[in-house]
Amino acid sequence: MRTWEDFKKDIKKINNDIKDDIEEMEILAHIISAIIERRNEMGISQRELANICGLPHSSVARIESCAVKPKVETLIKIMKPLGLTLVAKTI
Q1: Global pTM?
Q2: Which contacts (CB < 8 Å, 24+ apart) does range 31-39 have?
Q3: Is residue 63 part of a domain?
Q4: Is the pLDDT of residue 23 over 90?
């Protein structure tokens, strides 16, 4: 049985544009997962996080549900009060 990882590997070989899109989505999903995990560890709601960051609750909700692709500035605004940072590394 083929796995999702097998499928992604095959698709990445076929089309560079799709490869780039998949890799971008995986990076963003990792960042958003860290935000959600840390927010839950701290016991704060999306609404509370939004208030701390000076953002509308709907913005935090859309980011956490991957409904939008946030700007780096917005991610930093959300991550800072959670004690998280963005780190660039070679992939």
Answers
A1: 0.82
A2: 31/75, 31/86, 32/63, 32/64, 32/66, 34/84, 35/63, 35/64, 35/75, 35/78, 35/79, 35/82, 35/84, 36/64, 38/82, 38/83, 38/84, 39/82
A3: yes
A4: no
